[in-house]
Amino acid sequence: MHLIKCPWCGERAEMEFTYGGDGTLTRPADPEAASDAEWTDYVYFRDNPRGPHEELWQHASGCRRWIKVRRNTLTHEILATGPADRPLEGNAS
Ligand SMILES: [Zn+2]
């Protein structure tokens, strides 16, 4: 069983969390000026990284808050966690 550390609840079983997607995406800075290609890229296209990657997860069966998780996609090791609205500490890799 994998454990994920919620910043508010502490370490909890992975089954309490729901994957929420890529944590590195940023909306186009000027939405009105963004092209269709920029919106298509933002909405539909995702990288499939190998190694450490930042993701959004929700502690759905706990406090229901969104958190940011740095997870190694090869080993599933959880490298860091923190609030979703702040950068994770340590190297982003
Ligand atoms: Zn929590």
What topology emerges from the helices and strands here?
Blueprint lengths: L2 E4 L3 E4 L4 E5 L13 H9 L7 E7 L7 E7 L5 E6 L10
Antiparallel strand pairs: 1-2, 3-4, 4-5, 5-6
The structure holds zinc ion (ZN).
Zinc ion binds next to loops.
Q: What's the SSE pattern?
A: EEEHEEE
- Overall pLDDT level: 93
Within CATH, the superfamily carries the name: Folate-binding superfamily
How many structural domains can be distinguished in the coordinates?
A: 1
Into which percent range does the helicity of residues fall? under 10%
Counting DSSP H or I runs of 4 or more residues, the number of helices is: 1
N-to-C terminal Cα separation, in Å?
25 Å
The level-1 CATH class: Alpha Beta
Describe, in plain words, how this protein is organized in 3D.
The protein is mainly beta and 93 residues long. It has one domain (3-83): Folate-binding fold, CATH 3.30.2270. The chain is built from 1 helix and 6 strands; from the N terminus they run E-E-E-H-E-E-E. It has one helix at residues 36-44, and strands at 3-6, 10-13, 18-22, 52-58, 66-72, 78-83. Strands 3-4-5-6 form a 4-stranded antiparallel beta sheet, with no helix packed on it. It is elongated and about 45 Å long. The model has no long low-confidence stretch (mean pLDDT 93). Residues 6, 8-9, 59, 62-63, 65 line the site of zinc ion.
